[in-house]
């Protein structure tokens, strides 16, 4: 069977696969790694070399590769119902998942609307917000507010509320304008300023905008606690409390994009729990299916749901995807939630997080490192005086040391699966230090 060698797979992939977020020519020097299988935190290539998946394969994998419990649940679902359309039909996995998620918010966010990827969930939240206001007689509310350094996906609507210069510059002419407010990124703290002070400053910027134009603004969209894709920028939970108050005061919807930070990643199941608030819309994807299948969803308050409830089709939410509520994906999500319950994951993660933070102290105190930061199961630090090709060189050096890591610019981060053992925690910390020293030495 296995007649292909590692290099055959690489050559075939480069001939026919267009890889995401990649300047394909860079693969003349950056390795492309054909993965043959996964087990726990490890991915294996065709030569039997292994890589610790320190970024959970773009933040989706929570409980390791080939997880026996998720596998078993999926095999059973596969023999029962692989898919049925969700318009006019419903099924057990989507019902149970929606009930469980609602319960996790204390039934504040009572309904879930399903799609397949994160960007689609963002598009849904934006459309729902606008349409809900219109159904309530506020059709002037058509604008959206996002944060500096925000990332909400790369389809045209999601990109319009994303503030990544590279993408905005390339596709700007295609996008609808949105309002951008200051990021609450705690790294901006000046002399004697705390993270909470930065949060207050950033909230004041939101208030300035709301005062001026709230009657035209439908919603503000925020990645709560950690703006991940633009370099793991962390902020004080106070920011979310202040923005929640402003949204209530000025009648603006709050959309929380928990696609990356949800599912326990920041230490609580939903990141917004740490601020003691709930949004009007909450987007989930990535980890919700345990990293198994494409699944995303938008949870909403009952008041939003009711604003669409009518005999009139045009007042209904006009949106669908072919695979909406796919039973296999929902089953993977149910198995994932079951693991949270059975293993008391949020508690055991706290112990693991302490161990990794301790093991990373040589990096936290490294002369060429600044802004070492951690929240829940996310760690990041910034390389001082990193060269423009730092990220690519780090990735290439990391794979030589059994690590899968992709820094964002000069920000090195870790977002490992939650099943990391103590030995794997030590390997991750030690090898990251070795890789960092090699890359910084040139
Ligand atoms: C990944 C991500 C998205 C987009 O999800 P896709 O599945 O890649 O479309 C949106 N928002 C945040 C915060 C993300 O991290």
SSE layout and pairing:
Elements: H1 6-16, E1 35-39, E2 42-45, E3 50-53, H2 56-59, H3 68-78, H4 92-104, E4 109-115, H5 118-135, E5 143-147, H6 156-160, H7 165-171, E6 179-181, H8 195-213, E7 217-222, E8 226-227, E9 233-234, H9 238-250, E10 253-257, E11 281-284, E12 296-301, H10 302-308, H11 327-342, H12 345-359, H13 361-364, E13 369-375, E14 378-383, H14 390-400, E15 403-404, E16 411-414, H15 422-441
Parallel strand pairs: 3-15, 5-6, 5-7, 7-10, 10-11
Antiparallel strand pairs: 1-2, 2-3, 4-12, 8-9, 11-12, 13-14, 14-16
Helix pairs in contact: 3-11, 4-11, 5-10, 8-9, 12-15, 14-15
The structure holds pyridoxal-5'-phosphate (PLP).
Please identify the oligomeric state.
single chain
Strand runs, count: 16
**Can you say what the CATH homologous superfamily of the largest domain is?**
Type I PLP-dependent aspartate aminotransferase-like (Major domain)
CATH topology of the largest domain: Aspartate Aminotransferase, domain 2
The main sheet comes to:
7 strands, mixed
Report how far the terminal alpha carbons are from each other.
41 Å
């Amino acid at each position: 069977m296995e007649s292909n060698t590692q290099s055959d797979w690489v050559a075939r992939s480069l001939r026919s696969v267009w890889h995401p977020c990649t300047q394909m020519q860079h693969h003349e020097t950056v390795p492309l790694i054909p993965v043959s299988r996964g087990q726990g935190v490890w991915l294996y290539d065709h030569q039997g070399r292994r890589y610790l998946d320190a970024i959970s394969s773009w933040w989706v994998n929570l409980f390791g590769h080939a997880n026996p419990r998720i596998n078993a649940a999926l095999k059973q679902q596969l023999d029962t119902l692989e898919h049925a359309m969700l318009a006019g039909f419903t099924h057990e996995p989507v019902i149970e998942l929606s009930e469980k998620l609602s319960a996790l918010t204390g039934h504040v966010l009572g309904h879930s609307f399903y799609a397949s990827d994160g960007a689609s969930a963002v598009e849904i939240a934006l459309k729902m917000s606008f349409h809900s206001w219109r159904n309530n007689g506020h059709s002037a509310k058509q604008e959206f507010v996002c944060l500096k350094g925000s990332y909400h996906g790369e389809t045209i609507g999601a990109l319009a509320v994303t503030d990544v210069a590279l993408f905005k510059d390339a596709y700007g002419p295609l996008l609808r304008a949105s309002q951008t407010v200051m990021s609450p990124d705690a790294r901006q703290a000046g002399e004697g300023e705390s993270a909470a002070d930065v949060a207050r400053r950033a909230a004041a910027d939101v208030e300035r905008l709301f005062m001026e134009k709230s009657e035209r603004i439908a919603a503000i969209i925020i990645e709560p606690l950690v703006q991940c894709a633009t370099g793991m920028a962390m902020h004080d939970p106070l920011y979310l409390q202040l923005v929640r108050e402003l949204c209530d005061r000025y009648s603006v919807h709050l959309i929380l994009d928990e696609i990356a930070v949800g599912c326990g990643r920041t230490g609580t199941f939903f990141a917004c729990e740490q601020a003691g608030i709930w949004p009007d819309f909450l987007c989930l994807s990535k980890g919700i299916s345990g990293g198994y299948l494409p699944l995303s969803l938008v949870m909403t308050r009952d008041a939003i749901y009711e604003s669409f409830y009518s005999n009139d089709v045009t007042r209904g939410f006009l949106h669908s995807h072919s695979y909406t509520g796919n039973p296999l994906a929902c089953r993977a999500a149910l198995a994932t939630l079951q693991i949270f319950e059975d293993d008391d994951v949020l508690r055991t993660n706290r112990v693991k997080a302490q161990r990794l933070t301790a093991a990373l102290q040589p990096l936290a105190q490294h002369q060429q490192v600044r802004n070492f930061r951690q929240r829940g199961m996310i760690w990041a630090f910034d390389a001082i005086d990193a060269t423009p090709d730092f990220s690519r060189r780090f990735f290439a050096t990391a794979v030589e040391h059994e690590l899968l890591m992709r820094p964002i610019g000069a920000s090195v981060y870790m977002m490992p699966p939650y099943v990391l053992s103590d030995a794997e925690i030590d390997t991750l910390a030690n090898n990251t230090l070795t890789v960092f020293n090699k890359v910084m030495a040139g």
